[in-house]
Amino acid sequence: MKTTSLDLSLRNDLHWLSSLVSVVRFAAVSIPFFLAGAVARDLLLWYGYGVTTGRATQDVDIAFFVAGWDDFFSLKSRLSASGVFLEVPGIVQRVRFKGTLDVDLLPFGGVDDVLMAGLFAV
């Protein structure tokens, strides 16, 4: 099996994503993360294969490999302290980037799935 990476670094139309990832990378410090959900799918399909998906969602999902809930909430605090993310009242996993783009923070790793199911809004 051959593996390749999709290089989107020169895409001017993805400046918003580059800006978002830069701030997340700074706040995440040493926490591994990746783009997930519909945005990840759409980037791969459109920029990799030229397939339009007709995206239905208007948010970005980012998954973080955290050791536990303390790491997750510490990360969320650092994102809020950056000045470009605002917390969304009543939705623990969501922050708003530059006041307009909803970003869902998806913890995985050292967190209990049962607790996560009860903690996050659907």
Please explain how this structure is put together.
This protein has 122 residues and is of the alpha+beta class. It contains four helices and five strands; from the N terminus they run αβαβαβββα. The protein has helices at 15-28, 37-49, 69-81, 113-119; strands spanning 33-36, 59-66, 85-87, 94-97, 101-109. A hairpin with a 6-residue loop joins strand 3 (85-87) and strand 4 (94-97).
Instruction: Give the helix tally.
Output: 4
Q: Which percent range describes the beta-strand content?
A: 15-25%
Q: How would you describe the oligomerization state of the chains in this entry? A: single chain
How many strand units? 5
- What is the rounded distance between the termini? 37 Å
* Major sheet strand order: 1-2-5-4-3
Structural class: alpha+beta
Rg of Cα set:
15 Å
What fraction, in percent, of the residue positions are helical? Answer: 25-40%
Molecular shape: globular
* Major sheet attributes: 5 strands, mixed
Question: Low-confidence runs (pLDDT<50, min 5 residues)?
Answer: none
What's this model, at a glance?
The chain has 122 residues and is of the alpha+beta class. It contains 4 helices and 5 strands; from the N terminus they run αβαβαβββα.
How do the helices and strands line up, and which of them pair or pack?
Elements: H1 15-28, E1 33-36, H2 37-49, E2 59-66, H3 69-81, E3 85-87, E4 94-97, E5 101-109, H4 113-119
Parallel strand pairs: 2-5
Antiparallel strand pairs: 1-2, 3-4, 4-5
Helix pairs in contact: 1-3
